[in-house]
C-alpha cells in the first residue's frame, strides 16, 4: 500500500460517454460541444467524449465522430473514446483521430452470462471483442476490466479471474489498464485488496480507477484506491451514468464531489470547482427529467474551504 497521499490527482470526465449512454435523453451535438468547452475552461484536461458504437444500439452517441473533431480544437486536451464495436469499414479512420481508445472486457466467473452482457453492449462475443479490439487499437490502446467487483447478471466475480483478464490485456499490448466497479458493488476493503494485487502484476500500467456511487460508497472507494497509489479517476458531472444493460446500476461518482474531496484533502486537481458547479447547473437543465446525483451542489463549498485543507504528503 502507498504510505502517503499523493500531491496531485487527475479527474477524467466521462459524462459524454458513460453518463449519456445510460439515459433516455439525446443531447444535441452543440450542447455536447458546450459541455466540453466549459469542462475545459474549468480545468479538466482528460475527457471521454463518446463511443464508436452503432447508432442503432446507442443513438445518444451517434455523433461521436463530430464530437471528436471538436475536441481536437482545444489545446492540451486529452480526449478518448471507448470501443464497443465498430464496422470494419472506416474503423481506422475513426480511431486514428483519437488520442487514446479504451477497450473494456468483463470477467467470467460463471459460464455464459458475461457473454450475454458483452453481446448486449456490443453485439460481439467476449472472445471476438477482445481479439479484434487488441488488433485494431495499435499503439493507443487502454484496456479495462469492467464489473471487477461484482455483476448484476452473474453476481459474484472471482478476483483471480479479474487479474487473469487484466494480465491478458497487458499481454496482447495494452499500455495501460483500469479496474472498474461498473455496477457499484465494491467497498473500500475490496478496492484496496484488488488494486494492491493488480499493482503487483501491472505496476505503473495500473492507471485508473472507475467507481460508481450506486450504493453511496463511490468516494470511499476512491480514497481506498488513492492509498494504493492510484491517482487518476473517472467521474461524471451530476453523477449520471451506469450500465444500460444492468438494471439499478446507476450513478458514476459525481465529478464535482470528487474534485471537492480531493482539493479539501490538499490534493491538487487543477480544477475550478465553482466552474464545475456552474456547468453542473447547465447540464441539469439540458437533461431535465433525468435523475441527477451528488451532494456538493446542494450545500455549496464550506466557508473554511481553501483555508483548512491539510497539505498532501510529498
Task: Give an overview in words.
The protein is globular, with a radius of gyration of 18 Å. The protein contains twelve helices and eight strands. The chain has one domain (10-299): Aldolase class I (TIM Barrel, Alpha-Beta Barrel), CATH 3.20.20.70. Helix 3 (64-71) links the parallel strand 2 and strand 3 (78-83). It has an eight-stranded parallel sheet with strand order 1-8-7-6-5-4-3-2. The chain is of the alpha/beta class.
Write the layout of secondary structure elements.
Layout: E1 10-13, H1 15-19, H2 29-41, E2 46-52, H3 64-71, E3 78-83, H4 91-95, E4 100-105, H5 113-122, H6 126-136, E5 141-145, H7 159-171, E6 176-181, H8 188-202, E7 206-211, H9 218-226, E8 232-235, H10 255-264, H11 273-286, H12 296-299
Helix pairs in contact: 2-3, 2-11, 7-8, 8-9, 10-11
In short:
By secondary structure, this protein is of the alpha/beta class.
CATH domain topology = TIM Barrel
In what range is the share of β-strand residues? Answer: 5-15%
CATH class: Alpha Beta
Residues in helix, %: 25-40%
- Number of separate strands: 8
Total separate domains: 1
**Which architecture does the CATH hierarchy give at level 2?**
Alpha-Beta Barrel
Q: Which residues sit in consecutive blocks of at least 5 with pLDDT less than 50?
A: 85-93, 110-138, 310-314
Mean pLDDT: 83
Major sheet, described briefly?
Answer: 8 strands, parallel
Overall shape: it is globular
- SS summary, helix count: 12
**Gap between N and C termini:** 16 Å
